[in-house]
Amino acid sequence: MVYYYEGFKYWIFSTPWIIHYLDAQKHATGEDLFNQPGLWKTHLYAVHSLTPDAQMMLDFGDVFARPVTRAKIGDDYERSHPGGHFESNYNLLYDLATRYNDSEIQGVADWMKSLGHTGQEEWWTLAWRNSKLKAMPIEKVESWHHFLNHDVVFWRSLGMRVIPDSCSGRGIGRVASTGELKD
After folding, report:
1. pTM
2. Tens of pLDDT along 161-181?
3. What residues contact residue 173 under an 8 Å CB cut-off, 6+ apart?
4. In Å, what is the CA distance from 115 to each residue of 49, 84, 87, 109?
5. Which parts of the chain fold into alpha helices (H)?
6. β-strand 144-147 against 174-175: which pairing, if any?
7. What is the dihedral of CA 104, 105, 106, 107, to 10 degrees?
8. Are the CB atoms for 161 and 53 separated by under 8 Å?
9. Each residue of 77-107: pLDDT tens digit?
10. What is the pLDDT of residue 144?
11. Torsion angle defined by CA atoms of residues 14, 18, 23 and 24, in that order, rounded to the nearest 10 degrees
């Protein structure tokens, strides 16, 4: 799983707390609760929930103020993009990449970081990122994923722009032709 029907905003908020709890649980009791299918795949939710430029999240669930946030104005934009950088908490993926020795998770985290993403607790990057773990290039990460728990399919393209379509209820976005978007 780790598909959040509430939207990417809640993934940003909730997942660090889950990771910190599991770290504390393992340290305090020795019980390792990280062996969960949802955690193995949470990087797929992170990568597929982003718009193709990876600077916003798709309008699916509760995602700040939707068109206002995408217009880079309003209080929610300042909260989600402090200093103009997307605060995605990408760095928690480094903890999972290290735990699972997973180059795909490491690759997604490195890609998000390379795009200027930040985290609320950036110092954890130093503790969690395993420099010996080779990162899979983002182009090799599968471009779609079916989250079976909620029967939702995400598909992404790094080469196309997406206009989120949150009003229709028929999907999370539609492909835009070059002429539909103005910068």
Report:
1. 0.81
2. 444 444 333 344 444 334 443
3. 58, 59, 162, 163, 164, 165
4. 15, 12, 11, 10
5. 8-29, 37-48, 67-70, 74-80, 92-100, 103-114, 124-128
6. unpaired
7. 50
8. yes
9. 988 999 999 999 999 999 999 999 999 999 9
10. 87
11. 100
- Which tokens go with 33? 């609760």
For residues 71 and 22, the answer to whether their CB atoms sit within 8 Å is no
Q: What is the pLDDT of residue 155?
A: 80
* Contact of 130 with 99, CB cutoff 8 Å: no
Q: Domains of the chain: which residue ranges?
A: 8-180
What's the rounded mean pLDDT across residues 133-158? 85
Which residue carries 């908020």 as its tokens? 13
| Torsion 153-156-160-161 (CA) sign | positive
Please give the Cα distance from 109 to 131 (Å, whole number). Answer: 12
Can you give the length of the chain in residues?
183
Q: Is 154 helix (H, G, I), strand (E, B) or coil?
A: strand
